[in-house]
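Lab meeting, item 3. Inverse folding demo.
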């Protein structure tokens, strides 16, 4: 069975006290058996031994009561750093200089070195996430289709540039279920969204006529699933909006000429 560090210290102190007690008893018996020492001197020596043992016992009790307190105080910076690490806070620093045991200080220094490594890799991870996100957004924006990304509650997480151009009333960071749009959006895009939320299944491709575009647009959908296969969101694709944008640009150039 392993003995805790504080208990080891206590055991060591107890052993020292026992050795001191045995030594004192040995001296007591030697003096008591020596007929050359008068009784007055014996009493004085016994009193000294008695008060010395009493002082040692009091000191042992005091150390026992304080040892855990001092250990907790010295280990508090280590504990606090570990707590902050578990919360994901790798920028935690010990603000005030502390006076602690060398071994504990060495542990803190190693934790701080580990903190720097974690912070470095955490920053690299964040940079990679931003890089991949920007790459995906760039790919979505150069797509010929207009794209809208939702979560399963109907919150709009992302809209591509083509959607912003042709459907400016649809905005990011809003919930499509809580907003009243014009009849065209209500009967097409919003209708498909409600169907997906109710069934948790992707909707079949549907073609709708949009009066503002004067075109039939096909709306397709795809579910986004987590690692367990559960749906966490979906994507709506309004096919070939880029061709309509090109036609509008061409007409504007012809009109200006």
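The presenter then showed the designed sequence:
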């Amino acid at each position: 069975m392993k003995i805790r560090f504080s208990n080891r210290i206590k055991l060591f102190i107890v052993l020292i006290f026992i050795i001191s007690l045995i030594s004192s008893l040995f001296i007591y018996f030697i003096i008591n058996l020596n007929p050359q020492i008068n009784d007055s001197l014996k009493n004085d020596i016994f009193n000294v031994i008695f008060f010395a043992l009493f002082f040692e016992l009091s000191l042992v009790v005091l150390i026992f009561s304080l040892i855990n307190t001092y250990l907790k105080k010295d280990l508090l910076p280590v504990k606090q750093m570990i707590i902050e690490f578990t919360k994901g806070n790798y920028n935690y620093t010990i603000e005030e200089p502390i006076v602690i045991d060398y071994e504990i200080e060495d542990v803190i220094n190693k934790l701080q070195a580990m903190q720097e490594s974690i912070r470095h890799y955490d920053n690299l991870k964040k940079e990679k996430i931003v890089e991949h996100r920007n790459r995906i957004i760039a790919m979505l924006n150069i797509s010929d289709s207009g794209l809208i990304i939702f979560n399963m509650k109907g919150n709009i997480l992302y809209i591509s540039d083509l959607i912003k151009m042709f459907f400016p009333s649809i905005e990011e960071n809003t919930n499509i279920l809580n907003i009243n749009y014009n009849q065209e959006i209500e009967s097409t895009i919003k209708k498909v969204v409600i169907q997906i939320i109710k069934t948790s299944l992707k909707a079949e491709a549907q073609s709708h006529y949009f009066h503002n575009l004067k075109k039939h647009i096909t709306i397709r959908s795809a579910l986004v699933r987590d690692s367990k296969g559960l749906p966490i969101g979906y994507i709506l694709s309004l096919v070939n909006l880029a061709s309509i944008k090109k036609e509008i640009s061409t007409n504007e150039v012809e009109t200006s000429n």
